[in-house]
């Protein structure tokens, strides 16, 4: 299954469930939003996509607290949580995906190597309560494009699994 197949399935399930989507992306630079909007008719489901490459943008557009960024760094589970929740709230969506990571070739460290990507998923329960999850995956360092493409696939697969579980 490629990104187009995943996006098609996500949009169909979200549409059937009456849900709307938003994205907040850093290292993927809008590639998740591009995969979704590549599909005709996405506009009835996909509300907004945020590309927040800088820490300042994460704070300004998504409300990620500066203290969280300072304490944990941009590539962290707490920031992935905050990005997803911020996109969900700002867009008024029902489901939001976030991604923040180190695509390389520079920027990695022993603690946070090139290929480390944190993902967030925020969603609204029927009663309006917001819940979020975050996880981390370290992709093989096979180049910047590879890490970004695999991050898109991972995020889309996670969103699809979530929507299927809600069906």
TrEMBL record:
Matching InterPro entries? CinA-like_C, CinA_C
Q: Which domain of life is it from?
A: Bacteria
Stored Gene3D superfamilies: CinA-like
Transmembrane spans: none
Domain CinA C-terminal: start-end pairs = 5-161
Concerning Pfam families, the annotation shows: CinA (PF02464)
Q: From the Swiss-Prot or TrEMBL record, give the protein name.
A: CinA domain protein
Species in which this protein is naturally found = Asticcacaulis excentricus (strain ATCC 15261 / DSM 4724 / KCTC 12464 / NCIMB 9791 / VKM B-1370 / CB 48)
